[in-house]
């Protein structure tokens, strides 16, 4: 399907019923980028892309997801010493949106999933409090591999345990897949985390503090975005569900942190790619099947996450299972307006 430029506000309203996205469908991103109140339009040239097949290549340290013609959608690095992650995470036009181990936060690794309990830190990859040890997610095995077709993916089992050795705290079954859907790559990330003993998911001491005294944590499924998506640069945007896109541009600057603590079904971060003119734009949507809270920031760097302990601590009984479903959509888009160079 080809999305055309919408030339009038009334025409956008007329079309909204057709393009409103479902939570886990690929067109969700393109649909939710069209907002009647913002009168913006996305152009996605999807001709010939709908039937693109995917293939998966597993090596000794990574899983590559590629289209049938060899374009890389992303690389899942599963032998990291602390946690598996996806980097690079790319759009169909080959623009990477992820950043791994930057100088300011070494533990930020592209698209990643991690949590924290009182005695084990699976996020920061270092001890940050007295009595806290470092945790790791250790790869055990792959199964249910779908190596080619309309969607490629696998099931992975992991052990969450002390990095220095010791008894596992969680057993995880993780399912990851990727497909091409028009101008987007659509990833699913499902986790089933079984607690082997009574514990609780805790918040970081660096959680965002809201004016009312509440705290917004940043653990869960998170994505560290490339440099030009943040740092106060112009033309970055944020959209929650079907609300209007809020832009950081010119004098009408939008403070992304005002969205902290929202519980959207979808959060879309829109940024520009440096070094190319006209400047390409890529939109990344995190969608969820639960109602976790959003942590999002654009300064001093771009990062967002949805997680089960973002609003409050989460107790887990021995044998209790935490199930979470996410969809990550990375799409090449062309949005207006833009500020002049």
Write a structural description.
- By secondary structure, the protein is mainly beta.
- The chain has a single domain (9-333), classed as Beta-galactosidase, Chain A, domain 5 (Distorted Sandwich).
- The chain is built from two helices and 24 strands.
- The protein has helices spanning 9-19, 28-32; strands at residues 54-58, 62-67, 72-77, 85-89, 111-114, 116-117, 120-121, 133-146, 148-149, 151-162, 170-181, 184-195, 199-201, 208-209, 215-216, 220-224, 236-240, 246-248, 266-272, 281-288, 293-297, 303-307, 314-316, 321-333.
- The strands form four sheets. Strands 6-7-8-10-11-12-24-20-19-17-18 form an eleven-stranded mixed beta sheet.
- The longest helix is centred in the N-terminal third of the chain and has 11 residues, at 9-19.
- The model is unreliable at 1-48 (pLDDT under 50).
Highlighted features:
5% helix; nine-stranded antiparallel sheet; disordered N terminus; 341 residues; mainly beta; 42% strand
CATH architecture: Distorted Sandwich
**What's the number of helices?**
2
Question: How many domain units?
Answer: 1
Distance between the termini: 32 Å
Helix proportion range: under 10%
How many distinct beta strands?
24
Biggest β-sheet description: 11 strands, mixed
